[in-house]
Amino acid sequence: MSDTHAQTVAFVRDTMLPEQPPPASEAGVIKWMRENLFKGWFNSILTIVALYFIFKIVTGAYPWFANGIWTTSSLAECREMLDGMTGACFSVLTERWNQLLFGFTYPPEAYWRPTLAFVLLIVAIAPVLYPKAPRQLLVFTGIYPFVAYWLIWGGTLLAPLMILAGLIAGYFAFKQFERQSFAMGMLAGLVAAIVVIWAGGIIPASLPDALALQAVQSRDLGGFMLNMILGTVCVSLSLPLGILLALGRQSSMPIIKWICVIFIEFIRGVPLITLLFVANVVLAYFFPPGSNIDLVLRVIIMITMFSAAYIAEVIRGGLAALPRGQYEAADSLGLDYAQATRLIIMPQALKISIPGIVNVAVGLFKDTTLVSVISMFDLVGMIRGPILASTEWNGVYWELWGFAVFLFFIVCFSISKYSQWLERQLATDHR
Amino acid sequence: MSTISDPPSGSFQLSMLINDTRYRSYTFQFIALILLILAFAYLGYNLLANLQAAGLNISYQFLGEPAGYDINQTLIPYTSQSTHWQASLVGVLNTLLVAFLGCLMATVIGVVVGVLRLSDNWLVRQLMSVYVEIFRNVPVLIWILIIMAVFIAVLPQPRDFRGDDPEATMFLNAFAFTGRGFYSPAPIFGPGSGAVIAVFLASIAGIFAFRNYAKKALYERGQLIPTFWPSVAIFFIPAIIAYFIFGRPITLEYPELRGFNFQGGIFMRNSLIALWFALSIYTAAFIAENVRAGILAVSKGQTEAAASLGLRPGRIMNLVVLPQALRVIIPPLISQYLNLTKNSSLAIAVGYMDLTGTLGGITLNQTGRAIEAIFLLMLFYLAISLAISAIMNVYNNAVKLKER
Fold it and tell me: Quick check: pTM over 0.90?
């Protein structure tokens, strides 16, 4: 058969042809561009519009950055140097950086203190954020709030030390009585802490100069530092409060449940700015006559209540998402409510709520700018008030707002990236 | 067999209030109630003592007194002789105005950006995620002030439109974008315009009726009636015909430069526009993420199943993907609307006279009635957010999966 075939056909290929490269339009960059940029007429139009848009922005912004002036001391000088060219007056940043970061009345010789507090904040927060960081650092995290208070506000170190001693005494009392019952332990801890803080208060009062830094008033805080302080303090204070509110809202005791529901819904229903008005003009009426609570503390109280309500809702979502079986398993092991909550429920519920909590934290940090409305001089307040109103820098909008956008973007974007990373780390199921 | 043990009978002892789980919750609640009452009593006592020391009282008389200040953007008649109550009402309407405009624009931008973030086009996808990240991660107050700075520093002043060779010109001779705000033509309703408007409203009702008819025809007889172009025709044609029949009763009044300012037309003040745009683009970034998440939440199998039934892409989107995606999108969307409404209280930063600016701002400062003014302010926002939550609950119940 094959013989006949061989005679009728002039040529039979008996080797494989070498593979040919794909057509130029189906390989490499061209293929990628065809698929991702010019797929169909509509996509091509979109691409061209987008390219034009990017081109306009780059050509507009490049000379502005490239001709930027960093060394003058007023806008008029800067305009003179630019001589009609497009260019930024970044010198407002080099001249007023201290006001933007620390506010305009914080003593300049003490700038190292908040800076150090900020660096220590990174060290203190590391073991909380990264499970791999050495566990011993957690001790430092516990001490940090007192150190930071001392660094930023100054005064004698003994005052925060006494409060720390009170908390430690309370902790030991709690441990001592926890065997009997959780409630007993809490009560004993509370009593011990109050007694030690109250009794120990005599020591710093009698020795105001021991280990003292130059005292700074709360009203002298300002700039981005104030945003950072309000953000970190309020988020850390509102987390325990939010957990309690969430547990209260899930509780089967109607009175406690309704107290929590009304608190949460009331706070969530009003804008933060009205709460800040309360802090500014109303809250003072509710303190004992003659007491003089300063504005920063009042603002911290209101913002903490605000974020606690939001965090409570996030954690309530986490509690609701836990399977019923977890609660029942804890009950069947004979754990009481406090043990079950601490050992079984909360660790899982908090894990589910982390993305939500981070969202609230980012939102809260952004909302700290609202204090500028009640004439506190945070970053936005500094820009709107003392800097834009000064004769030297009246009219430098883009450099200043760009700087503010830059700072907030860096902080908020990295927090949200961190939360995405942590979510991946904690995803123990579906692997 | 399990033995059913009776609860321990026997007389009630005082120690059971702590040791017996049946009674312990009463103890806790009682303690909580006492603590709450004590806290309120303490705060109330302080309040009374402080008020007495300052010689003040709680009274809402001030609402009936003349306000004595002007409001530069009002929807209802208002003069400086009007009462504080009317000033507050102007503020309420201004809040609702900016909230409504903001929600509208934020939805449009948010949906477009959310869909474009899922586009095939790499460049557009990247651009949109840059937009979302930048606007989500910077406080809205900064955006409001930046847009306000555009008005102050970039846009021309009305006087720049003057002269033979002006520095700035009007857009289409009808719109003027100035640093003080935007001017646009205003419609003037002459005699007979009511009939034109009635025809227009009737034609909108007609569109709905026509669509219902088309749907019915499809479901009952399997007859496919095109709806898009007929709808467009019904929308425009009757109204235009009526407009000419009644002798063109609706005319436009163009803004005109007189002296140093524009007269006539509709004027939107710069503070309103700054607030509106900033709230819109900020909230739109969040809405875009909700839209994207909602579309991604519809599993690919749904699209494929619909395609295998022979549906065309447009119908897959309308009949299969969107109804399911909307169920995911709408609840967070409504809470974004709520956020936008609450954020509109930042109007005070640019001087737009919303409720926070009138009642919580100038009225408060003039009368010194801080507690009353802020209480009313909170009550208003609380009422709005409770109303929106109620709407959301109704909606959620309507669209929730009907499990049988």
Answer: no
